[in-house]
Amino acid sequence: MFFSLRQTLRLALCLLTFSAFGAPAMATPAVALHYSRHAPLEDLKLFDIVVVEPDHGYDPVSYRSKGSELYAYASVAEVQPTRSYFKDIPAPWQMARNGQWNSVVIDQTPAEWPAFFAEGVIGPLWKQGYRGFFLDTLDSYRLASSFDENAQQNGLVRVIEGLHQRFPGIKLIVNRGFEVMPRLQGKVEMVAAESLYRGWNAGSKRYEEVSESDRQWLLTQLKTIQERDRIPVLAIDYVPPHDRALARETAARIQTHGFIPWVSDSDLSTVGIGSVELVPRRVLMVFNGAESPALNYSTAHRFLQMPLNHMGYVVDYADVRSPLPKGIYRDRYAGVVTSFAGFIPSTHRADLTRWLLDQMTAGMPVAIAGDFGLQPDRSWADKAGIQAQGFTLQGALRVSRTHAMMGFEVEAPPTERDYSPVRLVGKTAGQATPLMEFKDEKGQTFVGGALTSWGGFINDPFVLADIPGTDQSRWVVDPFAFFTQALKLQPLPIPDITTENGRRLLLAHVDGDGFPSRAEFAGSPLAAEVLLKEVLEKYRIPQTVAIIEGETAPHGLHPALSPQLEDIARRMYRLPHVEVASHSYSHPFLWDTSVKHGLFAENSEAAFHMAIPNYEMDLQREIAGSVDYIRQRLAPSGKPVKVFQWTGDTAPSGRALQIAYEAGLININGGDTFISKLNPTLTAVGAHGITKDGYLQVYAPITNENIYTNLWGGPFYGFTRVIETFEMTDKPRRIKPVGIYYHTYSASKPASLRALRNVYDWALAQPLHPVYTSEYIRKVLDFHSLALGQDRQGWRVRSNGHLRTLRLPSDLGTLVSQGSHGVAGSREGQEGTYVHLTGDKAWFQVASGTPATAAVATATADTRAPVSLYEANARIASWSVSPDGLTTNFALQGHVPLQWSLASIGDHCQLRADKRVIPAQKSPAPARADLRTYRLSDASAQIQVTCAAR
User: Fold this and answer.
1) Distance of alpha carbon 499 from alpha carbon 520, whole angstroms
2) Which of 95, 271, 606, 718 is the most buried (most CB within 10 A)?
3) What does the alpha-carbon distance between residue 403 and residue 435 come to, in Å, rounded to a whole number?
């Protein structure tokens, strides 16, 4: 019997058993298998159990902290000669060969074999920290020309019993071995079997559908295991890696039997589909590295990454000058974007054409923003429906139609004389939606961009327009709309780094530049002393302060002042609200000397760092060395140095980033977000950060006062304009938190100090959520590694617990709080609903409608919804609700006096904080009728809300 996809999904919904996040009658784990050398463990942590090839060097102990468990693959009855223990297996134990997999079949009957397997195979893995194992090839003895069935099965039983004796608490998943299961009660956690609906023929090297007879036989075996032994069943099927629809359909069919599905490729090297499906959050950006000194300065990074980040996507980069990556599938990638300013080198054009057309053929959405990078040839016309040659323009072009997404910040510029439009041909012509459409004098139709079945393109000059006489640019196309439609992005819960518990984040960090400067006040005090007394001691919110060792140390530039400077730094770092950071040893102006740009490209004698006597630039000394100095001489005992703040061009190399991470440091600076009324464009808003050689540089949310004061040339009150930036990055889109970022020299002049106070005063007058810079950095790191997925009932989230907000776009729906796990509440925002997470795991559902509508419905219903958090200026340290929903216990841990609001709370509820009854505050009309607001002078509290039953 065969099921249609609709029937299969309907049955799957009826019979689905959930993971620990759902509410099943019998919870079963979500299982994944991934045998590649570089398994994407950050994505795979979405699953409860992940089976890996242990020889690839994973760390099961550290991975366990992510809430998921690594199981090691181990073959029982077959061994490949590449295994380290193969040489120790006696020849008489080798009873056959499996040519398809180049392995040797092992006899299970020798008395010494169980001990050999336990000590030689499982023992080393147990020492590495593995506690779960996937035992494969239990039936392989049947490949031998002759064997004793009972003796082989007895041997298998001895092997498994021996493992339990040698390794108490061991957890085992066994592949097949149906006949011995009755003898292994309580010793096997799960039984697996391959190819229930679709399999891989290793001999012919092709994917095949399983015959009805084979399927019915296997179903009988698995149902017996499930019903007789009450053991979960894992069914592993194989489909081509590019065919996600078939994988999804196959997983649904497997679930109709109550089995745990895993559907992947034949090598188990992609993230398949199981009882949970990973939502791909990566976009591959293809660019031409020859167009800019480094990736930091490319159009791809400066302009195109930010909109994708804001929509929840992580951007990876591929330079077209290098071989383009293989294995880009829809399991982890939502799409491919190309960004070229002109033709790429001729030696790479053919490869790019083949690669892009292959992506389109495989169903990967492709968005081309800018130039094609090449002249689309006949293959483009055949596959993509784009014709760029073989026709003649007749006279001038005139615009005949523009899409609504055009003219986003500036109207589309007129076409220049040398502009070369393209034509849509074949099926594409009838199915595409033009973005810019033209006609020549003969009525021929051309386009400068279109949405197509394979994705879409928008050509220059309709992506960005330069403003004459300035270094500013404007978006012609709406990048959010273009990427959404070209990449066919579906609404998803968006990891949001700007907000926690409904409130926009506030952070402040100081670069040490100017620490020894004399301030323009009576007595000419040091700028550092003024900063300490006038800012740090008065504004008791989380602050992160970094010094430059070469400015403060006795072996630096100011040995006579060093005792006074170090004393000021120590007093700063003793403040309980000040976080310790380093701003390097010699303040490098150019971190990567292989990438000379700007002044450094024009002047070979330009200084690369401060002129400290007898010092030559050394990355280790700048980063780890400066931190050691601060730890030893300045930081109070027990107060760690957590943060490194980049200097100069803030464009470190991959090696510099690696040194910072190896020193246990997180890092920040760069990005240069400075949108203002003088430059009102999203092109002035930077991305979350940039990854180099696998290491992430986190950008400062907002740029520093140096930019607002024209590189400290005046006006020195210019930093007040950062308030415009704060406001313009909050509405109509909250893209950045409030980040107060400046240098010590801002305390050296009356005008700049007044500006600094104005900025702090503005921030403290807003309903914000203060955090340390290190807390913000970890949110950005978490954004890049958070795993998001769907089972067929709701959304599953796993993170490192630092990023605590998901933004639900309005077209996705709003939170259904009842039945959710790891969710404390939600608050409406301009772009949707902010969902408040309580930790590193969550499961929830969404529904159409608005939170306000849901609240009204709840208020008039016969039953009351549990109390939920609407907003808070502190982190949730714990959250629990009693089974009857009448008692809610939670803890808030913040940095300033607590403020919080609760929803679904009324006169029938009593709130206690640290065992004291706390009344709701008298306040103007709240945003919703069911809200109550509370305040405490403490920065942390244990809170209990008890409500009377109706």
Assistant:
1) 38
2) 271
3) 5
Q: What is residue 386's three-state secondary structure?
A: strand
CA dist 434 and 485 (Å) reads: 12
CB atoms within 10 A of CB 856: 14
pTM above 0.85, yes or no: yes
Spell out the SS3 assignment of 269-332: CCCCEECCEECCCEEEEEECHHHCCCHHHCHHHHHHHHHHHHCCCEEEEEECCCCCCCCCCCCC
Of the candidates 404, 492, 401, 379, the residue with the CA atom closest to the CA atom of residue 448: 401
Q: Are strands 132-136 and 69-75 parallel, antiparallel or unpaired?
A: parallel
What digits encode the pLDDT tens for the residues 323-361? 999 999 999 999 999 999 999 999 999 999 999 999 999
Assign 322 a pLDDT band (cuts: 50, 70, 90). very high
Class of domain 5-276: alpha beta
What is residue 687's three-state secondary structure? coil
Quote the strand ranges of 693-737, DSSP E. Answer: 695-698
Q: Are 901 and 932 in contact (CB under 8 A)?
A: yes
Query: How far is it, in rounded angstroms, from Cα 298 to Cα 292?
Result: 5
Give CA–CA dist 94/89, Å, rounded.
Answer: 8
Give me 529's structure tokens. 């002393």
* N- to C-terminal Cα separation, the chain: 51
Give the separation between CA 213 and CA 219, rounded to whole angstroms.
10
pLDDT at 561 over 60: yes
For the cut 70, the answer to whether the pLDDT of residue 78 exceeds it is yes
The candidate with the shortest Cα–Cα distance to 504, out of 736, 756, 673, is: 736
Give the bridge partners for 368, in sequence order. Answer: 338, 457
Question: Would you report the helix, strand and coil content of the chain in percent, each value rounded to 5?
Answer: 30, 25, 45
- Whether 502-779 and 5-276 are alike in CATH topology: the answer is no
Fold of 502-779: 7-stranded beta/alpha barrel (3.20.110)
Q: Rounded distance, CA 422 to CA 415, Å?
A: 13
Domain boundaries of the chain, sorted by first residue: 5-276, 282-486, 502-779, 786-947
Query: In Å, how far are 47, 304, 662, 821 from 64, measured between CA atoms?
Result: 12, 36, 21, 20
Each residue's pLDDT tens digit, 694-729 = 999 999 999 999 999 999 999 999 999 999 999 999
Count how many Cα atoms sit within 13 Å of the Cα of residue 802 in the half-sphere of its side chain: 19
Q: Does domain 282-486 have CATH number 3.30.310?
A: no
> In Å, how far are 236, 272, 367, 656 from 241, measured between CA atoms?
14, 8, 21, 36
Q: State the Cα–Cα distance between residues 299 and 312, nearest whole angstrom.
A: 20
